[in-house]
Amino acid sequence: MPRVSVLVRALWVATVALVVCSFAQAQNAGDIMQLFGGMMRAAIVEHAVAEWSKIPFNELSCIDSQLQQQGLTSRQLAQNGIAPTDPRLSAIRISCRQEPHPPPRPAPVVADQSLSAKPTFDCEKVRSSPVRSSPVPLVLCADPRGAHADWYLNSAYWALLFSLDESSRSAFKEARESWESSLKQECRLLPVSDQFSSAQRGCVIAAFKRRADAYRSRLTGDALTEATLTPEDHAKIQIALAGLGLFDSKADGEFGPFTRTAIKRYQASLGATQAEFLTAQQRESLLTSAIPPHVAQASTSAQ
Questions:
Q1: DSSP state of 270
Q2: Is the pLDDT score of 20 beyond 70?
Q3: Total structural domains in the chain?
Q4: What is the C-alpha separation between 16 and 271, in angstroms, rounded?
Q5: Are 253 and 231 in contact (CB under 8 A)?
Q6: Alpha-helical runs (H) found in the chain
Q7: Which of 33, 56, 87, 178 is deepest in the core (most CB within 10 A)?
Q8: Domain check: are 151 and 296 in the same one?
C-alpha cells in the first residue's frame, strides 16, 4: 500500500505540473500572438501614412475635400491602415485626377519688415499685463540690445527643438522655461519692478547669448544654416510658402510647428524627402518661385 500511495502521489504531481506547464505555454503563445498582431498593425499604419505622403498636395486637398463630406479625412484613414490605393477610394481619386484644379488660393499672410527691431513678443502687452510670470520679457523690452538677444536665442531654440526626436522635445521645452525662470534669481530681478539697472539688463542679455551659443553648438547642416538667418529672411520664406498656398499663419519669422508643416508640404510637392528643414537648394528655389503680387508686396502687419 505505501508503494501504491507514493506512486499515486507522484502521478498526481506530474499531472499538475503538466497542466501548469501547458497553461503557461498557452499564455505565452497568446502573448506572442498579441504582440505579433500589434507589430503587424503598426507596420500597416506606417505603410498607409507613407503612401498618403506621396500624394501631390493639390490632389490630396481634393481628396480631403470629398472625404470631409463623409466626415472623414485622409489622416484618419491612414491611422486606420487604409492606404490611398484602397479600392473604396478609387472613384474619389479618379475624379480628383481628372477634374482641373485651380492653384491653391494664397493665404492672407503679411510680414513685418522690421521684425528684428523688436522682440518676438509684444512689449506693450507685456507692460500692460496685470499678471507677470517673469520679469525677463520686461528687461528685454527695456534694453536696446533686448530684441537682438531674444531673436538670437529664439532662432537657435526652434532649430534645435526640431532637430530633436519628438520624444525629447517636451523635456527640452521644459528646460528652456526652467532656465528663463532661474534668471530672476541669477540676475536679481524683482517680479514687481519694471525698473532695471544696467547690471541687471547686462546679466539677462549675456545669459541669453550664452544659452543661444550653447544651442548653436549642437546644430549642424541645414538646421545651423536656418538658425543664422535673420527674422526678415525667415518671414520671406513664410511668405513664399503662403504664395504657394502651403502656409496660412502670420509671417512672424518664428519657425514653429506651422512653418515646419508648410516646409514638408513644399518638399512633398517637389517629390523630395520630407524633413524639418529646407536645404539651401530648396530655399533658393522657393524664394525664386512665382509669388502672387498682393502677397509679395505686403510689408507690414497689424500688431
A1: T
A2: no
A3: 2
A4: 63
A5: yes
A6: 2-53, 57-68, 74-79, 90-98, 123-128, 136-142, 146-161, 166-186, 198-216, 221-228, 231-243, 257-269, 280-287, 293-296
A7: 56
A8: yes
> Contact at 8 Å (CB) between 270 and 283?
no
pLDDT at position 17 over 80? no
Which residue, 51, 79, 98, sits at the end of a domain? 98
Quote the cell numbers at residue 131.
499678471
> Would you say 178 and 249 are in contact if contact means Cβ atoms under 8 Å apart?
no
DSSP state of 81: T
Residue 70's pLDDT band (boundaries 50, 70, 90)? confident
User: Cα 275 from chain centroid?
Assistant: 11
Same domain, 123 and 167: yes
Question: Confidence band (pLDDT; 50, 70, 90) for 215?
Answer: very high
Distance CA 92, CA 178 (A): 50
Predicted local distance difference test score (pLDDT) of residue 210: 97
Residue 30: give the domain boundaries: 2-98
Nearest by Cα to 156 from 144, 142, 178, 172: 172
Which triple of cell numbers denotes residue 101? 484644379
Give residue 74's pLDDT band: very low, low, confident or very high (50, 70, 90): confident
Residues 13 and 116 in one domain: no
Q: Which of 43, 77, 98 is the last residue of a domain?
A: 98
What is the average per-residue pLDDT within 94-103? 66
DSSP letters spanning 276-293? SS--HHHHHHHHTS---H
pLDDT, tens digit, for every residue of 243-256? 888 998 889 999 99
